[in-house]
Amino acid sequence: TGLINGASVGAVLNITEGIYDVVCNVRLVGVPAPELQVAIRQLHREYPGLTVIEDNSMGYAIRQGLDIPSYECEGFATTAQSKPRILGGLKVALQRQELKWSHAAYPELTEEMRGYQLDDKFIVQDCVMSLAIALDSAAQAHLHEPGRIIAVIQI
Q: Per-residue DSSP letters for 57-97?
């Protein structure tokens, strides 16, 4: 059926200014793969710029079926090496107050960020990882054009 059993999270960052702003954070649970592709394409239309899809799990197949030009849609591999790096970058951005979001608008993101711990095997981390991937990809997005970056992960 192509059902994505876990959650898929899309985090959109406005990277046009020095402080990055989460302008959208979407969490979908248990949606069929075609519906997820429709949701990603819609986010890409609403927020033009670079879209980054976590290639782990079903992400690669989802990305290949998106009909988004490859220069606007890239893959990201979460590995034992990349995960600490992107989480470290997220931590630094928060410490430097270079990242913001509305706690009222995105309570799931706020809750996950407050409860995050490095041994994350038994906690919900979808929003945290999506945000970390988006932030890590922001520098690359600037090479395309200033605007927005979307990161989508499938758990």
A: TTHHHHHHTS---TTTEEEE---TTHHHHHHHHHHHHHHTT
Bridge partners, 10 (sequence order): 26, 152
Q: pLDDT at position 155, please?
A: 42
Residue holding tokens 């922001």?
138
Distance CA 72, CA 76 (A): 13
Inter-CA distances, 65 with 8, 33, 48, 73, 103, Å: 16, 10, 18, 11, 33
Residue 26 and residue 38 in contact, taking contact as beta carbons nearer than 8 Å: no
DSSP 135: H
Average pLDDT over residues 56-75: 91
CA distance to 38, 43, 104, per residue, from 34 (Å) = 6, 14, 30
For residues 143 and 113, the model is more confident at 113
Cα 62 to chain centroid distance, Å, stands at 14
CA atoms of 130 and 124, how far apart (whole Å): 12
> Quick one: tokens of 89?
């970058």
Q: How many residues does the chain have?
A: 155
Residue 82 neighbours by CB distance under 10 Å: 14
